[in-house]
Structure formats: C-alpha cells, structure tokens
C-alpha cells in the first residue's frame, strides 16, 4: 500500500454536503463502532445507524445551538477518507482540547493519521489550548502508537487509555 508522502491531505470544515459525503465514506469503508457511539440493533450500517450518524454530527458540530466541537472532513487526493475533531473541555486550570480522528480502512496505515494529528495539534495550539487530550482503547494499537508519537503521556484506565500532552 502506498504511503501518504505524495498525497494531498486536506481538512475541510464540516458542513451539510460534507456530512453526506462523510456518511458515504463511513458506510463504504468503516465499521459503525469505529466512527460513532453505539446504537442498538442488528450489526452493520442499518438505517437507524445512518440516521444516528447524521444526528450525532449535526448536534455536536453543525447546529449552532448545540455545537460543542469543530469537525473536519479529511480528504486525501480529493477523496473523503475520514474525519477529525477538536472539542474544548474545561480543564482544572486552563483550556484543554479533546481530539478524535477516524479514517476509512483503505486509508489506514499510510501515515495519514499522523499528519492529521499534527494539524489538530497545531489548531489546538493556535486556539490557545494548554493541553491536548484523547482517549482510546488498550487494544487499539494504531491509535496508541499515534498518540504516543505526539509525545503525549498515556495512562491506562482498565480497557481505556487516556492520553494527555501539555503544550
Ligand atoms: C487510529 C487511526 C486514526 C491511525 O491512523 P493511521 O493513518 O492508520 O496511522 P498512521 O499510518 O499515521 O500510523 C501512526 C502510527 O501507528 C502505527 N500503526 C499504524 N497502524 C498500526 C497497526 N495496525 N498496528 C500497530 N501500529 C500501527 C504506525 O506505524 C505509526 O507509528 P510510527 O509513527 O511510530 O511509525 C486509524 O487507524 C483509524 O482511523 N482507526 C479506526 C478509528 C480509530 O480507532 N480512531 C482512533 C480512536 S482514538
């Protein structure tokens, strides 16, 4: 599989047309559990999960009355490959920013996650954050490696891992 070296990776602020494209990419190339909170029902991209995916992003990013985070569509060479997000959270003393990234299966393992994370770190710093935090699971080797590569400290909490990096 080719690396991301010559690919153009662009983060585009999420909007309604982008959300439709993001859903298409998720359905084609990712498991629901990798890209959204659990929804009851049979496995796979059921109608209920597609609706929940759209509602999730509208509530958290697109509706100004309820938005709590900024989400970007990750495009690689013009193709939607995943999403990245930053959510300001109130830390003990300074602004913390919580980050998340997912990529479709066909885009993984090529260095794209690493580059997207670097963009998120810059955006968090530029936004005045003092701390960058993220959560993953013990069995997610790629995410663990990605997060430890930023210099973040990783704390194991049962099956979960909290990563935090002070700027
Ligand atoms: C986690 C995720 C964003 C990583 O992005 P990616 O583009 O696949 O990762 P990269 O290719 O940039 O690799 C990042 C690091 O992880 C390592 N890595 C990548 N895939 C790996 C795997 N399957 N197992 C172990 N390490 C892996 C790479 O070698 C690299 O480490 P290095 O820089 O020290 O060499 C991506 O795999 C993904 O979307 N997974 C599903 C959703 C998810 O788990 N999101 C994260 C939740 S916190």
Count of discrete structural domains: 1
Average predicted local confidence, pLDDT: 95
In CATH's first tier, which class applies? Alpha Beta
How far is the first residue's CA from the last residue's CA?
34 Å
Helicity range = 25-40%
Largest sheet: 7 strands, mixed
Q: What is the fold-level CATH name, i.e. the topology? A: Aminopeptidase
Task: Give an overview in words.
The protein has helices at residues 16-29, 32-35, 47-62, 112-126, 141-148, and strands spanning 9-13, 70-76, 79-90, 95-103, 131-137, 153-157, 160-166. It has 167 residues and is of the alpha+beta class. Helix 4 links the parallel strand 4 and strand 5. Helix 1 crosses helix 3. It starts with 8 loop residues before the first strand and ends with a strand. The model has no long low-confidence stretch (mean pLDDT 95). The longest helix is centred in the N-terminal third of the chain and has 16 residues, at 47-62. It has a single domain (9-166), classed as 3-Layer(aba) Sandwich (Aminopeptidase), CATH 3.40.630. It has a seven-stranded mixed sheet with strand order 1-2-3-4-5-7-6, sandwiched between helices. The chain has five helices and seven strands; from the N terminus they run E-H-H-H-E-E-E-H-E-H-E-E. Residues 34, 100-103, 108-114, 134, 136, 140-143, 145-146, 149 line the site of coenzyme A.
């Amino acid at each position: 599989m080719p690396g991301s070296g010559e690919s153009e990776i662009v983060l585009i602020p999420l909007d309604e047309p982008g959300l439709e494209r993001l859903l298409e990419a998720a359905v084609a190339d990712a498991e629901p559990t990798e890209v959204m909170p659990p929804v009851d029902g049979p496995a796979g991209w059921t109608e209920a999960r597609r609706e929940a995916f759209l509602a999730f992003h509208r509530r958290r990013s697109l509706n100004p009355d309820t938005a709590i985070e900024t989400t970007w569509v990750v495009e690689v060479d013009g193709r939607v490959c995943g999403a990245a997000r930053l959510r300001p959270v109130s830390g003990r003393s300074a602004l913390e920013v919580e980050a998340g990234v997912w990529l479709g299966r066909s885009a993984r393992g090529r260095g794209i996650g690493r580059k997207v994370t670097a963009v998120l770190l810059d955006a968090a710093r530029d936004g005045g954050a003092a701390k960058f935090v993220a959560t993953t699971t013990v069995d997610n080797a790629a995410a663990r490696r990605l997060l430890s590569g930023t210099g973040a400290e990783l704390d194991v909490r049962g099956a979960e891992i909290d990563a935090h990096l002070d700027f």
